[in-house]
Amino acid sequence: MTDRVPDDATLAQDGADLTGSGRVLLVACGALAHEIMALKRANGWTHLDLACLPALLHNRPERIAPAVRDLVEARRDDYDSVFVVYADCGTGGALERTCRELGVGMMRGPHCYAFFDGIDRFTVRGDDEMRAFYLTDFLVRQFDAFVTRPLGLDRHPELREMYFGNYERLIYLAQTDDPALDAKAQEAAGALGLAYERRPTGYGDLETALSGL
Amino acid sequence: MADQDDDIILSDLTDEELIQQMHDDLYDGLKDEIIEAVNILLERGWQPYDILTRALVAGMTIVGYDFRDGILFVPEVLLAANAMKGGMIILKPLLAETDAPRMGKMVIGTVKGDIHDIGKNLVAMMMEGAGFEVVDIGINNPVESYLEALAAEEPDILGMSALLTTTMPYMKTVIDTMVAEGIRDRYVVLVGGAPLNEEFGKAIGADAYCRDAAVAVETAKSFVARRHNQLAVG
């Protein structure tokens, strides 16, 4: 058993096995590992074990539901229950159907931006923020791996307008108060040609959901 | 491919060599080279429609296949599309002047609450390349915009796009309204976007889900041909 979270590059590429003697298994996106472990430590949730899939699955959302299914089926016999710490995440309802078939719970909402912000607040904002591009702590740290390089902006900056021409703002949904991340997020907004806003969210609905397990 | 092509002088190539080179240049997203090659073929007396289909559409079809097969990724497809657009800008007014085959007409737009248009733009461009007249009504379209465009343009096909799980259900709102207004059967409704699938397309009452631009073109051709056959029989 280890509480040591691997570096972000490992979480992005490989995920992480942070399981031990807990009775509830969290099957989560690697992008949430730091936040879940921080909540575990802060709340003394020793009954929760964590297994993370590679965060880069988000660039191929059609692969998320099958990967979650494989991991749940491989590990569920070792636990009293399993909870999936993904929102829909671009799977078009496929992950929800998979979780229903497996009989396991999952996060509400369209994506982690929504549950960090708070699903109800996010829903009320609706179309007012359709021109907003969101980043979380993890995505600020991994901006190059998740945005710049996969979109080819490092090699072809001329594509920026095709990707981001309809966006107006970059909103950094901040889980922690870190001036270095704030500066990095602001730099990302500048690189994309967007106005910048920092919105402190803390862990939002993630904490509420995990506290009920 | 590009490394080997540094010394190639396009105007020295035969027609067949030039067409092949255009396929390579599209694949590599070389817009200036595509524009130059289109102008060379026009100077040699090629019909705009032949340049469009044999050079640009055929080249983009290869790009589409390699994207589907995971050989190319979104940035490369966008560069190729941008190169094709360079050629299309020259050819479009010329096509309008000539009697190039007309396949049908399409109104296309991204649904309300959604600003994503990369896929929609690719579909629009490939549909134009395939001989369809395309009326692109842009992003963030409420149902009223779709209905107005359908009434004004009288297309054969309505195309709707959505990238978000939160916005894709709006396609059903549009289709349900079309049903309520008694106009649904006048149009072929095609839907697409990353989180969609065939099951969703069926569930909301679309005629077909199209997973990419190449599939959209083939599906549109097939539906329009079917409609023409029905009209001929009727």
UniProtKB/TrEMBL annotation, chain A:
InterPro entries registered for this protein in UniProt: DUF1638
Sequence ranges assigned to domain DUF1638 in this UniProt record: 52-210
Pfam families: DUF1638
UniProt-recorded name of the protein: DUF1638 domain-containing protein
Organism: Tranquillimonas rosea
Taxonomic lineage from the root: Bacteria, Pseudomonadati, Pseudomonadota, Alphaproteobacteria, Rhodobacterales
Automatic annotation (TrEMBL), chain B:
Key words of the record: Cobalt, Metal-binding, Methyltransferase, Transferase
Domain B12-binding N-terminal, chain residue ranges per copy: 9-103
Pfam families per the UniProt record, alphabetical: B12-binding, B12-binding_2
SUPFAM superfamilies xref list: Cobalamin (vitamin B12)-binding domain (SSF52242), Methionine synthase domain (SSF47644)
GO annotation, cellular component aspect: cytosol
The B12-binding domain, residue ranges: 103-234
GO BP annotation list: homocysteine metabolic process; methylation; tetrahydrofolate metabolic process
InterPro entries: Cbl-bd_cap, Cobalamin-bd, Cobalamin-bd_sf, Met_Synthase/Corrinoid, Meth_synthase_dom
Domain of life: Bacteria
GO molecular function: cobalamin binding; metal ion binding; methionine synthase activity
Family statement drawn from the similarity comment of this UniProt entry: Belongs to the methylamine corrinoid protein family.
Official protein name in the record: 5-methyltetrahydrofolate--homocysteine methyltransferase
Species of origin: Tranquillimonas rosea
